[in-house]
Amino acid sequence: MYNGIAWEGYIYILGPFLKTRQHQKPQDTIMRLATIASFVGLVTASPIGLLPPALLNPFGPKKPDGTVATAPLDVVHEMEHYWKYCSVSYCVGMGKNNQLYSQVKSPFVCNNILCADQEFSQTELLYSFYGINEHQTANGYLAADHKRKQLILVFRGTQSEADSAADLNTWQVSNVDFDGLKNSTDTNAESDCHGCSIHAGFVGIFNNSFKQIDSRLNLYKSMYPDYKLVVTGHSLGGAVALLYGVSLRINGRDPLVVTFGQPRVGNAAFASYVDSLFFPTAGDQLSSSPYRKMYRVTRYEDPVTQVPFWDGYTQQSGEVFINQFNVPTKPENVVFCQGQNNGFCANGIPWYQYANIDSDKQVHSSYFFRSPGCGGSQSFTPYGGNQTEPSAVSIPPGDLKARLNLPYDTNY
């Protein structure tokens, strides 16, 4: 993956200091940089116990209590399954220096060893999208899992300079600027989301991509009318997946939305609106019922899930927290979390535990197992094997288990 992922959380953190204003003077920027330097100096020079509470918890208030429940094993396996799709998405689109990646090819072949996983033996690539127009657009692909009877829409995370620019555009736009609400068949959608403010960069990617992707989605949905729809994505892709999920939901679809390492997408009003769509009953957030349609997967010490932490940004509910630093993930360390900012889950981790940039880079790309990348010098090295090895033939489950250092077979 593009090294931009390593800095994504820190781009967000520095965002409120570096954002330019229309009439900002050079000395204003200097003052902002000086503030950052002073903050870093204070952090590195002071014992943790001497720091004031406001600096100990800049990500927002930590609730003193919260409710969690151990996630069932079948849900853990299902989440890992969708994480594999997200890992493969980094083979799609433009990367650093506008280099075109090797892509995912029909039937479902790529330079990520996961494409050869037997779980994907009946998976078919239907459509990949990147560079839809000259604007910032979504990157990813649509696949059909003929074994599970699912259409899976996958959005890639930050990998290019354009992606990073979208991440930095943390200004908020109103609900009327979000085409997913504006063009909804639900005439009450805009009024139901009264007071909603949404991340401008994420909305821009959605608005610039929606029509083209939705037309393909409608085509393949008509070809496979009994297939269930899954929308998933990692990081920036998780944010875009959430917006697509909201749009599909208010237009009469019933998608399953699964995000990994998703940043905060909007303010409290927007988060509550999302909850009203996916969790009409609060207790559903601890349920693994088939009727549950939202899983926001976070993990220990992933800073991206806690940003932006200014301007009233808030996470939606549906958190599934991996309470473990190392990979592979042990299923018993995965829990459901009640509410939007549960202090027993990702929101309860002190900010100073995010201080190791190299560690955070690996954490953000390591949900259940570390993403193998997509070959070439810009990807992460998988556990064992050749980084650029093509995956045109099926890898036996036992071999894949060993190469990804998984504690159990992937053939479930």
From TrEMBL:
GO biological process: lipid metabolic process
Keyword terms, alphabetized: Hydrolase, Signal
Entries under Gene3D superfamilies matching the protein: alpha/beta hydrolase
EC number: 3.1.1.3
Molecular function, one GO term: triacylglycerol lipase activity
UniProt xrefs under Pfam families: Lipase_3 (PF01764)
UniProt enzyme class: hydrolase
Domain of life: Eukaryota
Fungal lipase-type domain span: 153-310
PANTHER family in the record: FUNGAL LIPASE-LIKE DOMAIN-CONTAINING PROTEIN-RELATED, TRIACYLGLYCEROL LIPASE, PUTATIVE (AFU_ORTHOLOGUE AFUA_6G06510)-RELATED
Protein's recorded name: triacylglycerol lipase
